[in-house]
Amino acid sequence: xxxxxxxxxxxxxxxxxxxxxxxxxRASTTNxxxxxxxxxxxxxxxxxxxxxxxxxxxxxxxxxxxxxxxxERNFDYLLGSDxxxxxxxxxxxxxxxxxxxxxxxxxxxxxGVRDSKTLNKKELEKLANEILASRIVHKSVILMPExxxxxxxxxxxxxxxxxxxxxxxxxxxIKDVLTGISTTSSKIKIIIxxxxxxxxxxxxxxxxxxxxxxxxxxxxxxxxxxxxSVASIIAKHEFEERVDQLNKQFNVDLRNSxxxxxxxxxxxxxxxxxxxxxxxxxxxxxDA
Length: 288
What we know:
The chain is of the alpha+beta class. Helix content is about 40%, strand content about 20%. The chain contains ten helices and ten strands. The protein has a five-stranded antiparallel β-sheet. The protein has a five-stranded mixed β-sheet with strand order 8-7-6-9-10.
């Protein structure tokens, strides 16, 4: 099965140098989107103008890809965090943080890891199983609807917003991951998919995550970073499993049913009640 990985200009330069140094045979491109093709024995590699590299997953092709990919030299661990479920009216909020070593990043790039939002169900399950089998350090804060609604209400009573809530969940997951790795003499980079810099920064400071040996990056393109992508895949995997559990427990189909079709008595147990459509449905329930 073909495998894809995104490469940057430096990595493309190393690939071109490798082609010349090893006198690899190039083939003609087949369409306007292709930048170059290598077809030499077991080696079958295509690079697209978008920066995507696709190869045939042979030992020889994987060896070339492994050679050209850039390795992080300045940090011992790269942490990423991401959340899944904030946009769905049903199911839990899952916030996951992971800690990767530089070689883990290369390995997951070679696996074809990317943001979970771009994966179909089959791809998600395959990558999630490969990631979990690798036994990397990861922690998830999973708030099932009933607990989520209680916590959200507590935050709202304090005048805090959804972003305060999300910032708390990210800081909690990251702090839990840091307890699972050696941080004393390690240089650590933390990458968070940016949503509210000020609120997230405050929560990280309160959790005592900001330390001299820790660099924190909140990036609007965080979901393109492998540590964040790995976290998003685990979080999405956890989210889908919990939705399956809710469907079985309450005999419903949350993915394919509008909230209007769900018994109002169980809505608070399967949904996020601050969503406007859910709040409207529940308004007045229990009064009288």
